[in-house]
Design a protein that fits this description.
Largest sheet: none
Number of helices: 8
Distance between the termini: 43 Å
Radius of gyration: 18 Å
Order of helices and strands: HHHHHHHH
Strand content: under 5%
Structural class: mainly alpha
Length: about 170
């Protein structure tokens, strides 16, 4: 695994852990991958050596993750933060655009982890989950919904890379 791929994997694991669907074990494994790829920092070593034993893994990740990410110039998102949720929405949208997950998987994820009460950034994805259910209930095709979801994913990713426009 390349250094960039290992760093990206750690950042993504941390984002998903901060919003709920990721596990502490995935963060610890990503930290180990970083060390194997040659990415190193004192706190990353501690994080990679954290226990994956049931019950203590989240405490270990919570204790060391912020410092490890800071040492690597990666972004830390506190658990259940709006910023972390928005980063997770964009991450999952990129995965859908890359074909790593199906459009329906993206909306199901948003419905479960973003919900109607979450970031407004993911609201359209949550609504599309209902569109899938409606299409299936009436015996229709979901191809149009798939296309709409991919278009929304593209919009979400494009919004993330737009530079600020001067007023």
């Amino acid at each position: 695994m390349s250094v960039d791929a290992a760093r990206t994997r750690l950042q993504e694991a941390a984002v998903l852990w901060s919003t709920g669907p990721g596990t502490a074990a995935q963060v610890i494994e990503a930290a180990c991958d970083c060390l194997t790829a040659g990415v190193d920092s004192p706190t990353l070593r501690i994080l990679a050596g954290a226990s994956c034993a049931k019950g203590s893994e989240n405490d270990e990740v919570r204790r060391w993750l912020e410092d490890a990410l800071t040492e690597l110039s990666l972004t830390y998102y506190p658990r259940c933060s709006r910023e972390g949720e928005e980063a997770a929405v964009r991450l999952m949208a990129r995965r859908a655009l890359a074909g790593e997950i199906a459009p329906r998987d993206l909306t199901a994820w948003a419905y479960l982890y973003v919900t109607w009460d979450g970031t407004p950034l993911g609201a359209e994805l949550v609504a599309f989950e209902n569109a899938y259910e409606y299409a299936e209930a009436v015996g229709g095709t979901t191809a149009d919904v798939d296309a709409d979801v991919i278009a929304e994913a593209g919009r979400l990713v494009a919004v993330a890379v737009q530079p600020c426009q001067p007023s």
